[in-house]
Structure formats: C-alpha cells, structure tokens
Amino acid sequence: MSIFDRANLAVSRRQLLIGASLTGAGLVIGFKPHAVAAASEPFAPNAFIRIPQEGKITFVMPSVEMGQGIYTAVAMMLAEELEVGLDQVTLEHAPADPKQYANPLLGDQITGGSLAIRGIYEQMRKAGATARIMLIAAAAREWGVSPDACKAEAGHVVETGGSRRAAYGSLITAAASEVVPQDVPLKPASSYRVIGKPAHRLDSPEKVNGTAKFGIDARPDGVSYAAIAICPHFNGKLRAVDEAPAMAVKGVTQVVRIEEAVAVVADNTGAARKGLAALSIDWDPGPSASVSQSELERQMDAAIDGKALPHVNEGDVARAEAEHGPVHEFVYRMPILTHSAMEPMNCTVHVRPDGCEVWVGTQIMSRARQAAADVTGLPLEKVVVHNHLLGGGFGRRLDVDGIILSTKIAKQVSGPVKVTWSREEDIRHDCYRYLNYSKVTATLGPDGLPVSWRHRVIGPSVMARWLPAFTKDGVDLDQMGGAESPYAIPNRQTDFARHEAPDGMLTGNWRGVGATRNVPPVECGIDELAELAGIDPLDYRRRLLQHKPRLLGALELAAEKAGWSSPLEKGKGRGIAVAEDFGSFAAMIAEVSIGADGRFKTDRIVCAVDCGQVINPDTVEAQIQSGVVYGLSAALYGRITVENGAVVEGNFDDAPVLRINETPPIEVHIVPSAEAPGGIGEVGTPGVAPALLNAIFMATGKRLRTLPIDQTDLRRV
Fold first, then answer.
1. Is residue 183 part of a domain?
2. Residue 226 and residue 189 share a domain
3. Is the torsion defined by CA of 200, 201, 203, 204 positive or negative?
4. Do 574 and 653 lie in a common domain?
5. pLDDT at position 715, please?
6. How far apart are CA 417 and CA 413, in angstroms?
7. Which of 399, 420, 441 is the last residue of a domain?
8. Which of 5, 80, 127, 443 is the most exposed place for a label (fewest CB within 10 A)?
C-alpha cells in the first residue's frame, strides 16, 4: 500500500471529539465524555496520529510536500515523541481543514515562507507525546502499576521493572478511555533517537519507481483532458474563436469559452493540445496593449527618488551624512522573475449540482477550497480538495488562479476534467516576482566603518493582496525582509516606495521572498564600502557582526571551509554574502574564474548555515543545495520581459534555468545548534547573487549592479 493512500478520516471521529487549540499553550485535545473506540477503529488521540490494532501507524501531514522533505521531517518529529521508528509509519495528506491543520504562525493551512517546521515543531512533538503518554497510562492501568513504571519503546509499552510488553495496537481501546493530558513533557535533546539523525526521505521510493501521485497524475473515473490558452495580454479578453478546426480533431469533444481563456476538451491530452493548436483565437488586448519593458523600467527608475513610506529609522541619518560625508550611493536593479517549477500548473475539477471535487497540488489548501466554492457558488462544505504531491512550488502554488480557471472550465464540462497548462502558459501567466530596485546610500567614519545607512526598496506590495496582516502602515513587511541589514550601523533608515506591476499582471511570492530582493543590494553595498575603506570584505563583516554571534559563527565557518585566506590565481575571485532571515543564519562564499574570452564560470559555492535544532541533516543539505541552484538560475538567466502588454518569454529556450553541467560543486556545512529550529527552504537562495557579484569584482575589478549577470556587459564594463 502506498504511504499516501487515503483512508476514511471520519472513522475515529464518530466517537471522538478532537479539538486542536493552536495557542501559545500548544496542542489541547478533548474527548467526548466516556468515549470508547471500538476494537476495529484506530486510536486517534489527535488530528495527526491514527494507531490501528494491526499494521502501520498513520501520520497525517499538516504541511504539503513539494520536494522540500517536510513529510519526512514531520514524521520524524511525531515518531520521536511517540517512540516509533520511521519504518513503522505510513503517511497521509491532510484534508482541507484549517481548523485542525492550520500553521500556527500563519493562521491558515499554508506551506510557505520557511514556516512549516518553525510553526509546527512544538505542536507535532506534543501530538506524539500525548499519544505516547495515553498509551503508557492505558498499559499501566491494565497491569495495575504506576505509569512511572512503564516506558514506550519501538511501538510498544514496556514494564521497566518486569517482563510485560504490549504493542500499541493492543492498547488502542483502553487508550481511548484515558484522560487527555493537557501539559505533556517533551523529550530532552540528549534523548533524541530520530530528530537530528540523517534519515532517508520517506517519499523517495515512490518518486523513484513512478508510483508517487502529483497533481498532474490525477485521473478520477471518467476524466477528460483540457488544454488551455489564456489571453496573453494583461487583463485581455476573448473576442472570438471558431471551434470547428478543433472539433475536427479526433478525440476532441468540446471547446469551452470563458472570459479570459479558451480550453479544448478531449479524451486524451494529445488530442486536446492538437485541437488547441488548430484554433485561431482573436484576443482583445484591452488597455494593456501599450505596456512595454522600457516603460516599466522607466517608471521604476523614476520611483527611486520619489515618495516612500518609512520602515526603520534609528539614530540620525541626516546628521551623520552631514558630519561624515561624502555620501556613497549605489543603485541595484533586479528583473521580473518566473517560478519555473518542474510540474506545470494543472488542476482537475468535477462540478456537480450538489458538490465539487478538486484534485490539485497546492501550497494553500483552504484557499483552494474557498476558490472552488466561490466559482461554483456552492457552500464550502460541499467542496472537497484532494491534495497531491507538488512538483515544485517556490511560492507559485500559493496562489489559486489556476484553480479558479479550471473550475470555470469544469462548470461547462460533464464529469471531471483535468486542465493542464503548457510550459508557455505556465511562464506567461505566472504570479511573478516583479521588478525590484534598491537605492543604498552610506557614509563612512574615520575607521572606514559605516556610520549611516539608507536603503530604499522599490517594488510592489504582494502582501497587500495576499496576506494584509503582513503589512504595517502601508509597508509590505515581506518586501522589506533583510532590507535594514544585519550590521551594526548606528544610524539607519529604510523605506518602501510601493510601485505595482501593470494592471492584470499577477505578482506573488518567490523563493526567498523579501530577502532575495534585499540581500543583494545589502551585501554588495557592504562590499563596496569595504573596498572604499580598503578593508578585506571578510574582516569588514567581522567588525560589523560582533553583536550577531550566530551569523558571525556561520560566516567564520564558511570562510574556513572556503579557504578565504588562501591566495587565488589571477583571474579568480571569491565573494561573500550573509543572510539572516526565516529564523536561520547563513553565509555563502562563491568562487569564480574569468576565461580568456572574458566570460566567467562559477567554480564553487560554500555555504554554512545555523538553522537551530536540525530535524534531518540530509534535508538541510539538500535544501541549501536546491536554494543555491535556484539562486544561480536567477542570477545567470532570470529575466522576464514585457512587450505589447504581454510576457515575451515562453519556454526554457528563452527563459532558461541552470543545467546540470553548469552546476558547480556546492558544499554545505551545518553549524551545531540547540536553538529552536529555523526555516531552511528559503535561506539558501538570497546570498547566491551577491556572492557571485562580489566574486566577479574580486576577479575583475568590475562592479555589476544589475541582474541577471550579463556576460556581454561584464566584458564591456
């Protein structure tokens, strides 16, 4: 049986009332008075664990798996406190139910922002500990001994001073009658058997043998297949289409028109795509037809010195500038970026008069359900979302535009219909990381260290649309992530100049979120100041990070492992960047070489990370490597452009990603820590571009301030 096979979640709830209070006090679980589970029903002490009489224990995953290893990490936390091995468990996707599966830090059923482990670390451990204590109490009561005379061990309760031993499955009926403990002790780190130890990913075998089910693999009975063409122009509409050419293709059953798109439905994907290709669609571009890349960039340049909202204001920057001039100014420009997840957008929907089912891989289960309910007009309880594994998320699947489109189409189709986007539609209708510019100004004291720092961030407010709670006084707190810098500078000011994308161009969250926008100007700016001061970039950061021992520790480890003090050949360079965000601390050193033709090559990336208590060190290493590759793709190639109110690029030929032969050796070194877990999915990405830019400067003496890195521009500078 697949570890992801779904079971009937309602079975144990017939007799148990499970309530999860996601407060600072942790997990609170209650039972109906005198509720006793039948022997045939599993013991479900909370929403995350089901223990059957025989067979493997089921762990229900509150977060979604998109390649980041969260399913294995959650299983490890539960298994640690429940005292079972990972070979004794099977995993199950949670249903769309924010009352039970919301991330406590986000208040909704969301996986993103490197908040999965941070939000549920204590909650999962308490869930496992609660079940363990109830099973021990049940065994002790049956044996007539004190619970203190018993312990849990490998899925059994064992009498420590005697010979009695009972498997968890044999205790489930008795355990269901136990009073649920409200304040459960957790194991000390010194007793960990699972947490902190390398563990193979539980989802890997099925991904290797092809049985893992992603959203694109959904095939409910009677499903038909749809290929979609979305109006290429922002806020454009469908004007007209002649469906006859598509209907002439064998296998095509229907052409569906909605306001902003056309879908061809067939009994197989090939026929649907062939039918779509046969169509000549007349689009109404609307008012966006005049929008061009040059105009968008001109508007951003104009906003650099325009009005802005204050964010951080410490000391007296103006006075420091007057007393310690000159004021050094650097402007950094970053492009529009797409997500380019391996699995293109897709969603399968079945709309019936009395209900709606959705099969999808999404980072935001509850909003997916609400979106389908809004489109169909059905009550929320009539909508069921079947979540799947995600073939990449990176923030793209935090939006529900694809689910909305699919549900609109499904309303016109009899039976379930799978809507799969082409790569071109996926790239041209993303929720983009929009243009982001930064203006950094600073003054230096007699010792060469900065005494003032201004950082103006120019870009859109994604949170104003997506999660208004992450804004304050008009400032997008996510957009400002890392903008004030981690360095000890006595006079600091950051502000936010909000400048939105053109109407109809969706902007959203992108891996690394605010830090990927702000770490490059901060870390390159600090390097530029070190150059002006005539101080080694590593030593410069050391002097400014004495108040940040964890970040300094990561920096020292990265420098040691990279051999920072060892000399380099001519034409080679090393560059540093640090990032403090998501509760983690990372330092990255890039090593590059410049060829005879003036082109540069990334030879090596060394990263040290302090992410607090590590759950699975293998996952930490993999996530940092993944973040580096993602960051390299953006630094070298990431650039989406707009002409005539439409995105120009459409596939990996003109929107390339890093190839395996271009990927340098990536070293990951973990700083041992007993601090609370930090996020790891995002922190590997922000430092890549600035480390590269700083390394290029060391190798060439040429300072680049625009991304992506243009090899031609590098030779011309």
1. yes
2. no
3. negative
4. yes
5. 66
6. 7
7. 420
8. 5
Alpha-carbon distance of 87 to 110, in angstroms, equals: 28
Residues 157 and 263 in one domain: no
Q: What pLDDT is attached to residue 38?
A: 53
3-state secondary structure at position 410: helix
The closest of 609, 558, 617 to 583, measured between CA atoms, is 609
150-153/156-159 β-pairing? antiparallel
Q: Which residues of the chain have pLDDT under 50?
A: 1-37
In whole angstroms, what is the distance from residue 38 CA to residue 51 CA? 13
DSSP state of 287: G
Measured CA to CA, the distance from residue 541 to residue 315 in angstroms comes to 21
Q: How many domains does the chain have?
A: 3
pLDDT in tens, 242-263: 999 999 999 999 999 999 999 9
Contact between 675 and 658 under an 8 Å Cβ cutoff? The reply is no
Beta-carbon contacts of residue 452 (< 8 Å; ≥ 6 apart): 315, 317, 320, 321, 324, 327, 441, 442, 443, 489, 490, 491, 492
Residue 499 CB partners (closer than 8 Å, separation 6+): 299, 300, 303, 435, 458, 459, 460
Helix (H) or strand (E) holding 537: helix 537-544
Residue 117 lies in a domain: yes
The predicted structure's pLDDT at residue 716: 58
Instruction: Report d(CA 70, CA 62) in Å as an integer.
Output: 10
Strand duo 165-167 + 252-258: pairing: unpaired
Which residues, including other chains, have CB under 8 Å from residue 97's CB and lie 6 or more apart?
A: 47, 109, 365, 366
Tell me if residue 36 falls in helix, strand or coil: coil
Distance CA 81, CA 104 (A): 20
Please provide residue 633's backbone torsions phi and psi, each rounded to the nearest 5 degrees. -55, -45
pLDDT in tens, 15-34: 222 333 322 322 233 222 23
Q: Is the separation of the CB atoms in 680 and 623 below 8 Å? A: yes
Per the structure block, which two tokens stand in for 325?
């001039």
Beta-carbon contacts of 612 under 8 Å, excluding residues fewer than 6 positions away, are 583, 584, 673, 674, 675, 676, 677, 678
Alpha-carbon distance of 177 to 37, in angstroms, equals: 8
The letter for the amino acid at 110 is I
Count of beta carbons in the 10 Å neighbourhood of residue 632: 24
Residue given tokens 């990370």 in the structure block: 609
Residue 98 Rama label (left phi>0; alpha psi -120 to 50; beta):
alpha
265 and 181 part of one domain: no
Distance CA 524, CA 514 (A): 16
